[in-house]
Write a structure and sequence with these properties.
With 250 residues, the chain is of the alpha+beta class. The protein contains seven helices and ten strands. Strands 1-4-5 form a three-stranded mixed beta sheet, covered by helices on one side. The longest helix is centred in the C-terminal third of the chain and has 20 residues. The radius of gyration is 21 Å and the shape is globular. The two termini are 39 Å apart.
């Protein structure tokens, strides 16, 4: 999963897949336009172009969003592409002739038209997100806000679908920001092994401590193209004020 708009380290994943004859599916739903520097290939590669297949979401809040629900699958495998075309249209390659059980998952023309119009602006919007991230990084660099900013490896060109910081006082900080009129989000509050959907797997709290720690500390700050530095300064000032208040009461 290319989480929050930053690519996963794909070279070792693909090498492991080759060794054990595994299939790699990229979750690029938050990474439209993100890039990965493949040391193996010696070049930058786009998210969604490296695995056997990749999935993209065009939910309105994504970097490239439609006006409603929409998504896409990319692959270099024509056989897989043909199978996906069947699955999206009730399992039929020809009307009323169903080769497999399928779904009604077709992208309608209205959403496709909106996406096609917006696609020409994606690179510009992604650059604006990167600039917003740079401003956050700079404003939070002195440590006064007492939060950990996102780490960007040298092999990644993220597109910052989200700008997520970490803090041990996440819930209190979120309430403080809300009181100041600043909206934030938590992506995601419950790790997979503790979701009710996977209760049958028998995992318990403490089985994946790193995931649990991250889920309790992450906080998504405001991030969107056109977010102005002044607004970002207001966000960081509020975070710094919270950190100072916490220090004074200890």
């Amino acid at each position: 999963m290319h989480l929050y708009g930053q690519t996963a380290d794909m070279d070792p994943i693909l090498e492991l897949a080759d060794e054990y004859d595994l299939i790699v599916i990229e979750d690029a739903c938050q990474a439209h336009g993100a890039e990965y520097l493949s040391r193996k290939d010696g070049r930058w590669r786009k998210a969604g172009s490296m695995g056997h297949a990749a999935v993209f979401s065009f939910y309105p809040g994504k970097n490239l969003g439609a006006c409603g629900e929409a998504g896409a699958i990319t692959t270099h495998d024509e056989g897989l592409a043909e199978h996906c075309r069947k699955l999206r249209d009730h399992g039929q390659a020809k009307k009323y002739f169903h080769a497999v059980e399928g779904y009604n998952g077709r992208l309608d023309a209205v959403q496709a038209g909106i996406l096609r119009s917006k696609l020409r602006y994606l690179a510009k919007w992604n650059e604006q997100r990167r600039e917003c991230a740079r401003v956050y990084d700079e404003l939070l660099a002195d440590g006064a806000a007492a939060v950990t900013v996102p780490h960007v490896p040298a092999w990644s060109k993220p597109v910052y679908h989200l700008y997520v910081v970490r803090t041990g006082s996440r819930d209190d900080l979120q309430r403080h920001l809300a009181d100041a009129g600043i909206g934030t989000g938590i992506h995601y509050p419950v790790p997979l092994h503790l979701q009710l959907a996977y209760a049958r797997s028998g995992w318990n709290r403490g089985d994946f401590p790193v995931s649990e720690e991250a889920a309790a500390e992450i906080l998504s700050l405001p991030m969107f193209p056109g977010l102005c530095p002044g607004s970002q300064r207001r966000v960081v000032d509020a975070i710094s004020a919270f950190a100072s208040l916490r220090s004074a009461t200890r």
